Each structure stands twice: as C-alpha cells, then as structure tokens.
Amino acid sequence: MTPLQIIFILVAAMTLGAGLMVVTARNLVHSALWLILALFGVAIVYVLLQAGFLAVVQVVIYIGAIAILMIFAIMLTRNIATESGPRFSENWSWALVIALVLFGTLAWMLSGWEGIAAQAPAISPRFDTVRELGLALVSPDGFVLAFEVASVLLLAALIGALVIAWDRR
Amino acid sequence: MTTETLIWLIPLPPVLAFFLIVLFTNRNRALSHSLAVGAAFLSWLGSMVVFFRAVSTEHLGEHPFVSSIPWLATGDTYFRIGVQIDPLSAATLFFVAWTVLMIFIYSVGYHNYGQPKGDHDRPGLPPHGATVRDAHGHEHHVPSIEPMYSRFFAFIGLFAFGMYTLVVSDNLLTLFVGWEIMGLCSYLLIGFWYGKPSARAAMIKAFITTRIGDVFMLLGIAYLYSLTGTLNYREIFYNEEVLRHLAEMPSYIAGFSAAALIGVLLFIGAIGKSAQFPLHVWLPDAMEGPTPVSAMIHAATMVSAGVYMVIRVFPLLAAGYEETHHLTQPMLFMAFIGAFTALFAATIAVAQNDIKRVLAYSTISQLGYMIAALGIGGYVAAAFHLITHAFFKALLFLGSGSVIHGMEHGVLHTGNHHVDPQNMFNMGGLRKKMPITYWTFLIGGLALSGFPFVTAGFWSKDEILADAWAHAPLVFVVLALAALLTAFYTMRQISLTFGGEPRTKEAEHAVESKWTMTLPLVILAVFAVAAGWVGIPEWMTGGAIPNWFHEFVGGTLLSHPEALPFNIVPLLTSLVVALGGLGLGLFVYRDIRAGASDPMESFLGAGLYRLLKNKYYFDEAYDRLFVQPAYWLAETFTSLWMDRKVIDGVLHWFAYISGVIGEFLRNAIDKPIVNGFGDWVGESAKKLGVFFRPIQTGRVQQYMILALFSIAVFTALFYYLLLTAR
Amino acid sequence: MIPLSWLLFFAAALFCIGLYGVLARKNAIAILMGIELMLNAVNVNLVAFWRYRTPEIMAGQVFAVIVFAVAAAEVAVGLALFISVYRRRKTIAADEIDMMKW
Questions:
Q1: What is the average per-residue pLDDT within C18-22?
Q2: Which residues of A touch B710 (CB under 8 A)?
C-alpha cells in the first residue's frame, strides 16, 4: 500500500464521516461546520488527482463563499439553529432505503464494469494543467460558450437572489 | 278576312277584356265597362258577319265553315281542335251575340254607373244607396254604384268567352271547356255578392249540382272518344257509318247500345246545366246573383248551352230512330224528363211570389219543353224554341231587373228597407210608372205564353206541340197542360206587377230605368216578336213562303227532317191553352188589393199551395237525402270514426309503440350502457383522482422520494426485461 | 497509485449521503447542504474520470468548474428563497412548506 493510498483512505474516511455528520447533526451551525470539513476533504482528493486549480477553487468558492453564505443564512433565520424539533421528516426511513439501494446499485454496477481497473496515465511535466484548463475555458475551440453561459447564469442568479430576498416592507 | 279566321277571332275580345280589366283597369270603372262592352260589340260584329255569310251560303249543312289545328299528339295522329259554323251553330251564334251584347249594355245601367258612391257600401254586398244634398239643402236617397263594378264586367267578359267558345267549337272537348268556363263564371256571378250568406250557399249549390251532370258528361265524352277516336262533330254526327256502328255496338249495360249509353251520359250533363229534373234545384237559387244579369245568364244563354249540346249530339241520341221509327232509349228518357220538368216547374211557378223566381221556374219549364221536343224527335222545333225562348226570356229577366230597380228606387225614397222589392205582392200599377218596361215585359210575357200568331213563342211552341201530337200523344197532353199553366202564371205575374193600383208606397214611387237598361229591352222585344217569323210553317202561308228556319237548321242533320203536315188539333190546343191561360190569369189577378192573400191559396187549398210554394220540398228532400248524409259522412263517419278513431288510433298506437321502444332503449340500453359507460369513465377518472390525490402533499421531499422510487422500480424492471430478453 | 474504483466508491458514498440528507432532513438549509455534498460527489467523479481516462483533454475539469458556478448560483437563489419564505411563514421546515398541495 503506497503512502498515497493511505492518505486517500484517511481523507476519504474523514470526508465521508464529515458528510454523515452534515446530514445528521442536530444543530445546523454544526452541520455547516461539518460541511466545511467535508468540502475540505474533497479539495484534498482533487490535489491527489493532480487537479490543483480545482482544489484551490474548491477551497475559495465552496468553503470561502458557499459555506459561509450558509452560515449567514442560518443566522438570518433566527432560532432555527437551536430548534428542538426532530431533525428528520417522517420520510427518513424511505430516504434511507433509497439511499442505500442507490449505493448498492451503483456499487454493483461499478464492480461489474471492466473500466474500473483503469490505470491513471502519467502526465508529462511539460503539460501545465492550469494553463490547459484556462485555454480550454476561454478558447473558441474549447468551452468558451459554456463558460459564458455559466457566467450569465451566475449573473441571473445574483439578480434573482436580490429580487427574491428583497424586503419590500 | 276569311270567314274561318273571323270565327276563330269571335271568342277572343271578351277574354282579352277580362284580362285587361283584372290586371290593369279595375280601378277605372269607365275604362273597364268600355273595354267589356267594346269587346262584346266586337264579338257581336264578328258573329253577325259570320251569321249573314252563313245564311247566304247554299247547302251550309253539307259544307259548313270549318277550320282546325292539330293540338294534342295522340300516338300516330293528332287530336285536332277547331271551329265550325254549321246552320245550328250559326243560329245559336245569332241569339248568343245579341243577348250577350244586350246584357253588357244593360249591366252599365243596372250597376248604377254615374251614381255616387254608397254611404256604407262594401265589396261583396249589394249597394245600399247614397245620400246626396241638392241645391236647396234637401237630402235625397239615390241608388249608389256597385262597389265591385269593374270585377263584374271582368266576370261577364269571361262568361262571354266561354259561351262563344262553346258555340263555335267543332268538337265536344272544346265545347266542354267552354261549358266549364261558364260553370266557373256562373259560380262567381251567383256569389258575386259574397257578403250575403244566401249567395254563398247558392253559388256552392249551383256549382256542385251542375258538377254532378258534368261528371257524367265527361264520362260520355270519354266513352265516345274511346270508341271513335275523335270528338269532332262532323266525323261523328254527320257520318252514317260511325252512327250505325255505335248504334249496333252493345255497351257495358245490357239492353243499351253504345250510342244510347253515350247519349244518356251526355244528356245527364245537360240535365245539370239546363236545370232539368232532378238537378233543377240550383237554378232558382241562382237568382241570388246581381238581379237581371246573372239571372239572364242563367235563363237565356248559359242554360241554353245544355240544350244546344243535346241538339248537337241529337244524331247520336236518335241513332237507329230513322230505321225503326221507335223512340230510342235516350229519346224516351229525354221525353220523359223534359215533359215532366215542363209541367212540374210550371206548377211551382204558379205559387211563387218573387218576380225572379217565377221566371226561373218558367225557364226550367221551357227548357223541359225543348228537351221533350228532342225526345220525340222534334229537332228543328227544339232549336227553334231554344232561340225564341232565349230572346223572350232574356227580355223578361231584364225587364224584371228593371222592375226591381224601379222598386229599389221606391224603397230608397221611402226609406223602408223591410219591403222586398222582388215580391210581386208589393208591386202593382207599375204600368204607369215604368211604361217602357211595362210594354216590353208584356211583349215578352205574351211570347212566353204563346200568344197566337204574333209572338215568337207561339210559333216555336206550336211546332213542338205539333211534333208531340204526331209522335207521342201523352207528351202532347203534358206539354199542353204545361203551356196552359205557363200562360196562367205569366199573366198572373204581369197583372200583379203592372196591373191594378200600387199596393205599397214603394210601388207608387217607382221610376222608369235609364236608357242603358231600357234600350236592350226594346231591342229584345223586337226579337221576341220577330224571331218567330223565320219559322212560320208553310201551311200558314199556304206554301207561299217556305219555312226558312226549318230548311236552314234542318240542314245540319244528315237526313233532312220532313216538315209535318198541317193538323188542326195542336193548333187549336195552342190557341186554347194560350188564350185560356192568359184570360184566366187576367181574370183572377186583375185587381188584387193591398194586403190581400193570393187567390191561388183558396183555390188550391192551403196544403197544396204550400207544397207548390215550397217547390215540392225538393231542397229539403235533397238536404235530407244528400247534404245531411254528406255532413254525417264527413263529420261523424270520416272525421269522428275514421279520422279520430281509426287513423288517429293507429297513429296513437304507433306513437305508443314508439314510446315503449323509446322507453326500452332509454332504460335498458341508453341509461345503463351508454350513459353508464360515460358515467363510469367520468366517475373512474374522479375516483382515480380521489385515490391519487393524497400523493400531492405539497412536500418536495415526498415527491422526490416517489420519483426516485419509481425510477428505481422501473429501472429494475427494465433491466430484468432486458436480461431475460437476451 | 490510487485505484479508480476507490475514487468511484468514495464518490458514490458521498452522493448517497448527500441524497439521504436531501430526502430526510427537515430544514431547508440542511437540504441545500445535502445538495452541495451531491454536487461534490459528482465533481469528484468528473475529475477522477478526467485523470484516469483523458488527462490531455480538459473537459472533465471544465465541467467541474461549471458545476461550481451552478452550485454557487443555486445556493445564492436557494438561500434567498429560504429567507423570503422565512419572513412570511416564520419557518423553513421543508415539510411545513406545502402550499402547493391539493
């Protein structure tokens, strides 16, 4: 077992554990904090997959923006963070069944797929992934259109959020 | 213009006048009567020209004026219609033209042309008189103009067309057409004052009664056509072969030859048209029409058409008579009917008080004379009497119209509208008030009575009596008796109307009629005397002057009838019955006081008098025998039983069955199956909705769980099927 | 070297945990957190497939970037909605927001 594999196992375990805590924690603020940990674990997985740029973006956007935004939202919606009612709705058992069935199905299908044993090809030192990603995002041969659409989507969401949350009183 | 063309044109002017008046000029009275009288004058002119050309033609009977056109394609040949003037139709045309023209002129005066409009006259009712104010401010009641003046002239125009068509036609079919046109005009003119219920009843009675005869006549025509293939006069009646063939051929009825059966059928048509017993009932009621004119139509011209037709078909009726010298069956039938009618109608006339009804029954009686004359073979005598009678009866009727007109004047003067201007017992002494009417009426009356040696009636009646004496003494007795009665009631009429002193104030104030009415009287009076002179027998003049009429009209027949030798019996009888009847009438009725009852009543006894006055109760008997059963058939049998019970019952039964089927379809098929299915679909959708409704909880998570669950299930199913299919 | 299967199993597990959170949690913000977990699981998959199959084509990473953008937009709109709903209903419990039911 290579050290890399050990690191992955530890990181994966931490991430999954944090994820579990996110969906089960009674206190929402705790959930949010556990979410930050899980997102951080995912960022480490990105690093392990040699996608450094994404790891940084994960930390900056997910942890720095989204998670903090959630904590703000929790705080804006007073007294729910500490409410004493049940965490789960009455459908939790069905949800559990569906989640487990889905995982079982995915595991079964994955284990039956021949590509599962693929080896990662080596990336030459001269291949700068960050540069290539940048080129792919903005070059006309690449994904410039999707990139622009995403930016328009973000703008629309920004305005939409403002409008929806506007307190007209 | 050739004579033939002229004959074609004779009937045309009146029918043109009819259409012009009806379509264009009926608002203008003067133009309407000018058109009608002008048309009648044109026809008269044409008729006179044709008549004089006819009498100046040698052997006209053998070579009559004929002209015909192909009309109706019947298989390989054409049914031809055309015109024909032989001696008989020439003579008929003569009196028709004169009388028609006289009626037209007379009508102008009779309908009060030039008088003001009535105060409250309405179309469909006789004029009631108008009030005028003279220069001194006095109010006068004067006769008012007929409200439907133009319509009257249109109708008589059409009537004249029918009569001329009948006279000039060369076949029985166009004769029948004219015959029916006159039937229609008769209906229209009798009901001219349709506002009066009695006029409406009379018009229907006349139409239906004559219709009975017409049906048989049409049957006879059809039978004749089916046997001979033609209806032309000359091809049948001037054709020995055809006549013999018809006389020898047996018909559908045992004992009758085809000729006899056809003759009887045609004669029944004449019974209806010429008001012979038993279809005579319509003629007295026809007096409901405008007084003199329609009455005169129903006395001088139209009813003569029946006799004219019988004279026309006489060769057929008499087919076989020449050989055997036995009266044929139709002739016997006619002799019986005619003689009976002559006497029967004369007895009724004796007890009538209405001046027009006396003349109506006298007409029936005189027509009976003609029919009886034909029945005993007196062909020329019948034609002669037809013509003389037309003149003096037209004169009498127009005269009576003039009398009534004068009486109406008196009624308007006194204002007492309860006085019947037609009742002879309200008259008296009119000879001084209405001299022209009196003298012309007297001439007509004497002609009707057969006043010896001067009047036309004497010669024609004498010829009939001579024929009767020679062939059938029984008929002679009956006719002589009828002649006696005729003279009696004619004198009774004249005495009551003109003789003595006025019995009412109205009679005192009667005035003479206008020249448009008196001029026709004078002209007809001339003919009432002079028309007889053409037929004076040869023995009278000692053979110096031939009997022109006998020679002329006799030429129509195939075999010229022999003039009878002189016999003193009929001559004496004629003299006795005429003078006796006249003297008796004058003696009994010379001076009847106001309020006096009819001397007839005490002489005959109340019962017999009432029987005669009520015309032997024929109307009542027909009412019981035919009218009431017809009503019963219509109301009780047809309407109540057949229609309501049987037909309605069947319909109700159908309706009921339909209802039952409908009920079954509705309850057994529509409601449970069709409706049930529809309802089931709807209800199922509703139930399904209700069943699935709880799923819509509004909770996003539950939706999602359901969606995922469904995806899972379907995916599993899909994979399973994919795998098993492999 | 980390086998691909490990990454995939990790991503699948993370996805299912997120799904459970989405389906079972009452609080709407918690549901949103579950969605974030699921999106991350997808991103892990994308990056893993990029690394193991076509490292020279950057499509996998590009998709991940776009998922980031979508996630950010989603969170922004979602949180705005929750705040708006909270103002009116004084709650953001998912099972209490059921105005759209029959």
A1: 92
A2: none
Asked if the C-beta of C93 comes within 8 angstroms of chain B's C-beta atoms, the answer is: no
Q: How would CATH label the architecture of A1-83?
A: Up-down Bundle (1.20)
* Run of H or E residues at B73: strand B65-74
**Beta carbons of A98 and B712 less than 8 Å apart:** yes
Q: What one-character DSSP code corresponds to residue B627?
A: I
Question: What is the C-alpha to C-alpha distance for residues B313 and B262, in angstroms, rounded to an integer?
Answer: 10
Which of B615, B472, B458, B437 lies closest to B530, judged by CA?
B458
Q: Output the six-digit token pair for C16.
A: 């299912």
**B705/A89 CB distance under 8 A:** no
Structure tokens at A85: 């009612």
What value of ipTM does the predicted structure carry?
A: 0.90
In a shared domain, residues B708 and B718? yes
Given a contact cutoff of 8 angstroms between Cβ atoms, the answer to whether B374 and B315 are in contact is no
List all residues of chain A from 114 to 153 with a beta carbon under 8 Å from chain B: none
Question: Please, which residues have CB within 8 angstroms of residue B616's CB and are 6 or more apart in sequence?
Answer: B344, B348
Residue ranges making up the domain that contains C39: 4-89
CA-nearest residue of chain B to A104? B712
Residue of C nearest to B694 (CA): C102
Cβ distance of A45 and C7 shorter than 8 Å? yes
Q: How confident is the model over C54-87, as pLDDT tens digits?
A: 888 888 899 999 999 999 999 999 999 888 888 8
- My answer on whether B663 and B720 are in the same domain is no
Residues B455-475: pLDDT tens digits? 888 888 888 888 888 888 888
Residue of C nearest to A86 (CA): C26
Number of H helices, E strands in chain C: 3, 0
Q: Is B249 strand, coil or helix? A: coil
Same domain for B672 and B658: yes
Range of the domain at B676: 620-695
Cβ–Cβ gap A110/C86 under 8 Å? no
B538, pLDDT greater than 60: yes
| Subunits with 3+ C-beta pairs closer than 8 A to A | B, C
* This prediction's pTM: 0.65
Q: Please answer whether residues B175 and B309 qualify as being in contact, where contact means their C-beta atoms are separated by less than 8 angstroms.
A: yes
> Which chain A residue lies closest to C78 (C-alpha atoms)?
A161
